[in-house]
Model the fold of this input.
Amino acid sequence: MCAVDVDNVYDFSKFFGQTYMVSQKFKDIVESIEPGVHDFIHFYLMDNMKNKIADYYFFSCKNIIDSINPNVGGLERRHVDLKEDCADYYYGARPADENNQVLFKEKLDGKACFYELHWKEEYIFITDEVYQKIQQAGLKPLRFGCKFKEQSMS
Done:
């Protein structure tokens, strides 16, 4: 792959569909929690003079879990026609309620990242542990969406 501007190389970038381009730092964070779970396909990022800039990976998140607490945050159950391997409904929240959602902490145990089975958007969810490691490592520039709370099922 060729980078036009080496000063704008990101640690996490959308590539195509649900495949992303990620840096070695991002891969190391995910693999430190879930070794061997997700797909990372290696490639060299090179400048236009064919000098190697960095090791990079095509990343595909492989976890799909049902972790959202439907009794919190004013969620509405909405029917949707999805592929066979997906849920036949998703939970919808008004934009003002998106940050009030709760994920069951026990279902996130041992996970680094995942797709939520009943959340329509195709966002990759990350756990608090991964978020903290991303902040400590200074990955750039990452934009985070809603902040869901992790709470015990009991």
In short: The CA atoms of residues 62 and 134 lie 19 Å apart. The helical segments are 24-33, 105-108, 128-137. The radius of gyration is 17 Å.
